[in-house]
Design goal:
Elements lengths: L1 E2 L5 E7 L3 E6 L4 E2 L1 H14 L5 E6 L5 E2 L1 H13 L4 E7 L3 H14 L5 E4 L2 H10 L3
Parallel strand pairs: 3-5, 4-6, 5-7, 7-8
Antiparallel strand pairs: 1-2, 2-3
Amino acid sequence: MLKTPCKVILSIQMIEGNICEIIFKDHVRIELQDMVESFDLVNSYTNHKPVKKLVITGERTEITKEARLFGHEASLKIKHNIIAEAIIVHSLYQKMVINFYSKFIKDNYPTQFFVDTAKAMDWLKSIPN
């Protein structure tokens, strides 16, 4: 497990083969620079190899509009490195943001949000490599 110096990511680790678990810190506001740093960190950690991503959002974590837009653009650029993405959310606000985000990237790779990590893992495991 990689404990990061990143302001918004708590840890990154590979679990169950090619599933990359990214855990965001609680109570943070993700700004544009944080999102840039997060994408760089994850891409570096995975060595730009195709992975399934399990993204665990932090409780009471928010993301700015600029960071969301960058996330969408970056997802288009790295779509060949993401097999599927399961996102764990903790609030209605996070569900709304992720739902909006997933509409833009749905044609690039499968994306779903969950409130239960076990169900997210089951879904990721069901996606072919």
